[in-house]
Amino acid sequence: MLILALSDAYIPERAIDLPIKFQKLLSASKNKISQVLLLGNCNKSVKFVEFLEQKVCDNIISIKGESDYQATQLPYNAIVPAGNFKIGLTSGFLIVPKNDVLSLLTISRQLDVDILLWGGTHNVEAYVLENKLFINPGSCTGAFNADWVMEEAEATDGESDLGEGTGSQVLEEEVSKLNISETGTDLDEAAADQEVEEADKAKNLEKASDVEDQKASSEASKAQESGKRGTGSKEPLEEDKADEPGNAKNAESEEKMHEDGHGAPVTYAETAKKNEDLSSTQHDKSVEKDTPQDNGSGSDNDQDESETDSDDDELVSSIPSFCLLDVQESVCSVYIYTYVDDEVKVDKVKYEKQ
Amino acid sequence: MYSNSLEQANGNIKQQTVLMARCLSQHKLMDAFKHASNMLSELRNPLLSPKQYYELYVTIYDTLTTLQQYLVENHKTKHHLTDLYELVQYAGNIIPRLYLMITVGSAYLYIEDSPKLAICKDMIEMCNGVQQPVRGLFLRYYLSQRTKEFFENGVIFIDHKSEENIDKIFKIDFITTNFIEMNKLWVRLQYQGPLKEKDLRTKERKELQVLIGSNLVRLSSILELSDVDLYTENVLPRILEQVVQCRDIIAQEYLLEIILKIFPEEFQISGLTKILECSLKLTPKTSISKIIITLIERMILFKKRSADYTDSSVFNKIWSYLVTLDEERPDLPIKEFILIISSLTQLVQLWDAPHPYINLDSLYKFIFYKKDDYTITEETNNMLKKLLLISSSSTNDFFGENIEFDAAKTTDDLYFNLITKCEYYVELLVSLSNEQLKIDTIETIFHTIFDNSNKKTSKYKISNKDHLIQFTKMLQPCLLENCELVSKFFHLIKNKNLQTQFDLLNYCHNWIISTNSNRGYILESLIVEYWKLIRKYCKKINTKSPLQKSKKKNETLTKLHVEKIDSATFIKQFFKTIGRCIQEIPNAEIQFKMNCTTASLADQLKLKDLSYDFFVNAFINFEEMSDSQLQYQSIVYISQCLQKTRSLFAFEKNGENKSLSTAQNESNYYENLITKCTLYGSKLLNKQDQCRSVLQCSHLWWCTEVPALGEEEGVTGSFFRDGKRVLECLQRSLRVADSVMDNCTSFLLTVEILNRVLYYFIHGETSYVTIKYCNGLIELIKTNLQFLERETRMATTSKNEIENSVLNHQADSNSALPSTSSSAEHHANFLTCYGIGIDGTIIKSFNKQESSKLSDVLFGKRLHQNEHDAIDKASAQKSFASIAKNNRIPIEFFERTLNYIKLQRTVDDRFKLIAT
């Protein structure tokens, strides 16, 4: 049973539409998806909802987000049974503190669900905590997000009084050992070792709260298991041929992340960034192409702006992403689709109910 | 004599054929001629329809071919063809006579030293003797068929070394003459017989048209590519002259089509002017558009094959023709003009690529003014729509190639360029008289633009005011009808120069304000663009300044200073504009959320004064809200926003407080806001809401990390935290929970408070939220639990009864969930399918068969509906809330919480101190 989870489309007030490649991917799998879950801010565009109903699946369950003013009939929470799981849906905008792990845990307890889906942060996340699976599918359109953004420029500036942290280290680093499935067998063992190391490291790091520690170790073991099981798995959605290069690239990027020895990725925003780096080295030519044109135009301003252009886009948009849950009795595989550099990338997390 | 019926005629022909063949084998030539003549008599029958006549003609043709072969083979041995040519002249009747003459004459052409020129001239001359249309046509066709071989195989008729073309010119003359005569006969056929059979005549003529066209085909096979001048100067004018002179619609349309199709494209370009001139002289009812479109399609195909061919005069020629047509033919229906223009736009796109827009604009301008001369019908509107969508309806597959154009395929940004570069494209579109059709067209265009802008490769965007003006002009009709479209449109506006971007957005703002639009949603989208602008602008200032600092310190210092002031003014201006936009939104809920988000953004940019003001505005909006559910959510939402702010309070990251006075001033902002927020929360009407609001507000005194800022729990040591105030909030909410006059709800609230207490406990707040406090709370809950369980037992409600009551309640209430008809299915997992939401609502699980179409829920609430609609108070939430009377649900929640505490003991020793 395939369940599609989308969130924060913000059409039309923040985004025009789903990326074309997402649209193709979803409409190509019309008969495979048996349910669509919308986690808020997806209800404003009639065109978008019609697209889902007509081209994807008309069994849609939607909860209200902060911008769904007109949809007064929609609930703020919902429970959906699937296989041996109960899936909880909750609107991200009523969680204080926003995106807080412990608060989410409380909600999962309150709703009595095995899997909790939420949105509102525009950052795709998936982690297991207290034997429960937490999934935030991010924004399916990559809409503008008014939350804090990383401020690298300010850190170099010296003006910043906030720059003492190590950049993107977040609480979830310990929490979310993302169980990225391996596509090649060689990688499995290395990856598993890596995870154990990480887990040890996490254990050694005596945190103010021991809870986190426990999370980390449970995560690591989880990751090992899923690493073994994940071999030879296939993505449920395939978009003709166009998907293949994406997959290949994806495998590559995973490899790279493990070579880094830098620990498992935390949020998908980062994964995507790494992918971006990777592809930018691969496509040096395209970068070269741009520069002579800029020189030709001559204006200093133009050049400056074109350099910072991509950065600016990061400031005002996020990476489009969504999740697909494949529920088979007591096993739930989460496929995370991200759209980076005009490519759709897929990652997999496996979760088993205990 | 001829037979009376077709059958008899066929029989006779067969018989005569056999007899003739027998005579030939016996070399009785005179007898053979006699039989042939008998057979040919059948072609004299005036009662035959053209179709029947053709049938007989074909059989006879074959027989005559045998005769001809015999004649050629036995020339000089048995007879001399000159003698025979003389001899057949004595045949009694003109039809057999001429057929036999052509048979002998053409046989003679096979002979090497025959007087070919003289024979040909004589044969074509003699054909004038038959003026009955059908008989004349077939006779001439026979002549054409018999001479075809010699013309096409390059048999020389005139050997004249000084003039190379003389032979070819003779052949052309011969064919042309024959063509002209045939055409005259063909046209005359129309006027044969009674008037009431006019339609039948027309049908018969169309059946015969191939006979006439065959002459043109013959011409095209004689002419080589190098003969283009010969064609233009000699052949074409003569044919066209006949076309004009015959004054017959069928002939004119058919012949021009054939001319345009059979001669090579190079000829067409060369003869363009002549064809165009000719089309002006046609009879009034002949379809000009049909001819011109065929001509244009030919040009398009030519350009496709030879892309490097450039001749800018083609458009000019057609354009000046169009102008003449406009002057000379005021009788022409608008339809004709639209069809021509439609097809021309495609030509222009191809011929004048990559800059076809000036010419395209001329075309749109032409039709824009032209249509004023006519009354516009539905059909005209539909045709104009097609014209504007660049979708050609040509189904002409003569060339085996699809000439149809798909706008989206030709170029990604075609519509975009049309809108920005062709003033009259927009004018024409806006001037469509059918409002719905107009909006449909605009929507189609924009959906294409949006789809293309969605592609990563697409670079086009609206970056200057002229473009913007064009677009807004076009969107004007949609302002009331399609908010979604207008809202999406703003996201296309992008200029790298951020001040220009600001001007563009301001232009949009004024545009919306000046129109009577459905402002709320549209403004929301515009505000988002302002937000983006602010983020980009601040980033730009921050990245630029260090660069400049390093360079030329003294010189730039003052400049930098000025720039900084400038940018500060700009940023402030941005926020003011947003503030104004928000005020113009006619809906307190949207205003509230816009204010909160703007305040958060201002806070992120360390603009605490602005941030404070926007938060204050949000509270003003809050006061305007009347729905209690909405009020509760608003309190939670604003506390979520406030909890993530950093600049509002005077708490320094590195722990060093500034001077006392500033610290107090600044901390006032944050304290003011959070106190106000908690106060509003505690004043909500509903006690549940009160309790939960205050509970959530406790987080306002307990700052948590913002990962994007590099903060980390346990590492960053300087969060703003005030355990005392947290405890005050917890206690206040506990008091409210206790005062709720409903056991079940009260119990649920205390369990929720317990979970919040555990939160602070885990976070290490033990000086106020002590173990003792935890244990006390658990004790309190347990006491309440006993009463609750007793109450449940007293009620002796069986599970089924509870379920039924719940389901009945579901059915009664006007909830978002359709009531279930198959309750049996739910018996199995009734208890496990309910849960409590974070706002205390009880949620029944959704099942596949239950979930209604989302659009059914939403469609009633389409965007363009009146947004002043009072918010539906009978929300689903309330009907859920009453299910809370089912005591099991909060009790189970409590049990799960206790389990959680037990589980935590294995990893966190502190939990061992909590008694469960």
Automatic annotation (TrEMBL), chain A:
> Annotated region Disordered: where?
180-315
Q: Where is the signal peptide?
A: none
Q: Where is the composition biased (Basic and acidic residues)?
A: 199-216, 243-262, 271-292
Q: Pfam families of this UniProt entry?
A: Metallophos_2 (PF12850)
Q: Which residues form the Calcineurin-like phosphoesterase domain?
A: 1-145
Bias (Acidic residues) occurs at 185-198, 301-315
Q: Determine the domain of life of the protein's source.
A: Eukaryota
Q: What NCBIfam families has UniProt attached to this entry?
A: yfcE
Tell me which family the UniProt entry assigns to this protein: Belongs to the VPS29 family.
* Protein name stated in the entry: Vacuolar protein sorting-associated protein 29
User: Which organism is this entry from?
Assistant: Hanseniaspora osmophila
Automatic annotation (TrEMBL), chain B:
Topology with regard to the membrane? Peripheral membrane protein
Question: A biological process (GO) annotation for this entry?
Answer: retrograde transport, endosome to Golgi
Localization of this protein: Membrane
Organism domain of life: Eukaryota
Cell wall biogenesis/degradation as UniProt keyword: no
Question: Per the record, what is one GO cellular component?
Answer: cytosol
| InterPro entries referenced in this protein's UniProt entry, alphabetically | Vps35, Vps35_C
Report keywords, A-Z: Membrane, Protein transport, Transport
Q: Which Pfam families match?
A: Vps35
**Keyword Protein transport on this protein?**
yes
Protein family membership: Belongs to the VPS35 family.
Q: What does this protein do?
A: Plays a role in vesicular protein sorting.
Q: What is this protein called?
A: Vacuolar protein sorting-associated protein 35
Q: To which species is this protein native?
A: Hanseniaspora osmophila
